[in-house]
Amino acid sequence: MGKELLRSFDALIKQAGYRNRSEAIRDLIRERLVQQEWTLTDRVTVGTITLVYSHDIHELTEVLTTLQHKYHKQIISTMHIHLDRHNCLEVLVVKGRGKEVKKIADRLLSTKGVKHGKLTTTTTGRRLS
Amino acid sequence: MGKELLRSFDALIKQAGYRNRSEAIRDLIRERLVQQEWTLTDRVTVGTITLVYSHDIHELTEVLTTLQHKYHKQIISTMHIHLDRHNCLEVLVVKGRGKEVKKIADRLLSTKGVKHGKLTTTTTGRRLS
Amino acid sequence: MGKELLRSFDALIKQAGYRNRSEAIRDLIRERLVQQEWTLTDRVTVGTITLVYSHDIHELTEVLTTLQHKYHKQIISTMHIHLDRHNCLEVLVVKGRGKEVKKIADRLLSTKGVKHGKLTTTTTGRRLS
Amino acid sequence: MGKELLRSFDALIKQAGYRNRSEAIRDLIRERLVQQEWTLTDRVTVGTITLVYSHDIHELTEVLTTLQHKYHKQIISTMHIHLDRHNCLEVLVVKGRGKEVKKIADRLLSTKGVKHGKLTTTTTGRRLS
Lengths: 129, 129, 129, 129
Description:
Shape of chain A: globular
Radius of gyration of chain A: 18 Å
Strand order of the largest sheet of chain A: 2-3-1-4
Order of helices and strands of chain A: HHEHEEHE
Strand content of chain A: 25-35%
Oligomer: homotetramer
Helix content of chain A: 40-55%
Number of strands of chain A: 4
Largest interface: A-D, 44 and 44 residues
């Protein structure tokens, strides 16, 4: 691991209040595993998918819309913000089995022309009362 | 005016609790005038534009998105519901001078392929406290 | 009907391109009847409900949220715009039998403290292809 | 680090196609640093905040709404999904200096009664063309 990376990580660790690197790394791994577990489940879950793209790219808007309609039973609603004349931000709320939600996110995020995208895994709230 | 139309109108009048036709017509005219006035004003207002269309129509999605980005300063946010595999419902919240909001609505609603659309005129809430 | 009202109506008629008052009134009546018919139907329809209110009014936000959750099966999604420090704009997309959608709108619009509200009747797009 | 945790992590590493643990940990650290950097910046950024909560909790809805209105200049739009009779999902799109967006997220996520919440850091798309 590079010196520069370690230095930055140590600064972050200090700021976040961890006592040592192991503790911080353990937390990162745990978080990653929870996320992984979520995306393999057959249980009904909720996720939000965030996409940033330029609608100037030929046919990108159409490709993304067609893809979303394919999963219209899982995608509850999409909010679209016109960031500027070119850039779009879309946030989709998706409800379905973890596997399905993950698959929908993967297909959208891997679409050519999407500048940035993330799946945020959350919950139906039922098991957390 | 046709007999059938009058009969239906009389039934509606009765149900709505109007005493006579003149009163009901006066209300329809007033409502229409308020709406008209709204769309001619230079004052900052808020409107919601509802659109239903099929994303299957070639390039319609792209045309509507490009049009919306042209007015990205007025269009605060757009909510898109995937009604089924083909039909889209979009609701736009638009803030700007009455005239501008009206113009944006006219351009979107008159786009070829839009099945149904409406501008709902509302308020910033400031003058109604 | 007052002179002032008639004068304004005549100006509007001219601008809109109607040939005479009867024609314009007929159109207003027709539009009103279509809307009425919509709200009596058992057929599945789609509507958007626009609400403007101040969240400063004690418990209004809670009342509206509780009401909306009561109809969570019909209300697909709600978009909330923070117009300023006090005023809220909410747009709800509602899918259900016409009667139900009308009832939900009536209950929300008649809630004390709501400054302005409107039900916009639209379509699932299925019968308009 | 516990055996169980390491075993799960090794499975994930294999599935994700990493060659060894170091490589995977390096990626986790990098991702975390990018996120950290984002939230310290004075540059204008965009984030989405996802919240799950129950509107049954006394005054929670009001507290969250008041908080959001305080930052109405940064919060562009909020989408509210009525997950069921009790649970709410809210997704906020926030545009502002990284620090501000982080602060808004922290205040919302730490509100008592919020079951789950996450800040997703994204971009205005301008530097990624």
